[in-house]
Amino acid sequence: MKTEEDLGADIIMAFDECCPYPSTYKYTKNSMERTTRWAKRCKEAHITQNQALFGIIQGGFYKDLRDKSLEELIELDLPGYAIGGISVGEPKEKFLDILYYTAPKMPKEKPRYLMGVGTPDYLIESAIAGIDMCDCVLPTRIARNGTALTSNGKVVVRNAIYERDWTPLDSECDCYTCKNYTRAYIRHLIKANEILGVRLLSIHNLRFLTNLMERVRIEIENDNLLNFKNEFYKKYGYYD
Hints:
Elements: H1 2-7, E1 11-13, H2 25-45, E2 52-57, H3 63-74, E3 80-83, H4 92-102, E4 112-114, H5 120-129, E5 133-134, H6 138-144, E6 147-150, E7 153-156, H7 176-180, H8 183-191, H9 195-221, H10 225-236
Parallel strand pairs: 1-2, 2-3, 3-4, 4-5
Antiparallel strand pairs: 6-7
């Protein structure tokens, strides 16, 4: 808590244990109970009033443990709550099962946060489930590997096919990278190990996800999010 307070973040997290996938019921139960104990100790140690301390719901892929974790964390009356322990390598159907089971049970009057989620499909699913915020290293991590998120799916710009491609990463994107640089030039930078290439891809990927979430908010206001999801999935390549 002292370290998090010194960092000065607006939202700080209670200490937790994120179980690997798969984990046994016994291991997961012990882990969840440890996470609850840590949350209580973190609340007692937390003294900075202008920082919101969030608790993290654990319990792996066992719904009764998720219920128990959430019940005990709600008793602490924290400013917000997060779902942890999913998007850890499990099949997508298991991710969605726990997401759609847990999110609706979280306090409606407090922020709902899903940890470690950054792919477009998971962000859209999270919004549909009622999640307010997500975070992930994905946009900058894949940038380091020469990959761009675009409206028509991923573009691995380091591939030879883009050597003479003078188009932007995404013709629908308004970011600095897409306005000023071509796929061919960014490929050259990546192949030459120039840090500018990674920076340009990071700028684009971050803006792509920002644009996506801006659109998600509009579709929520228009009560059209499910239709938007289907349209986006088809264009992005999630559907065959």
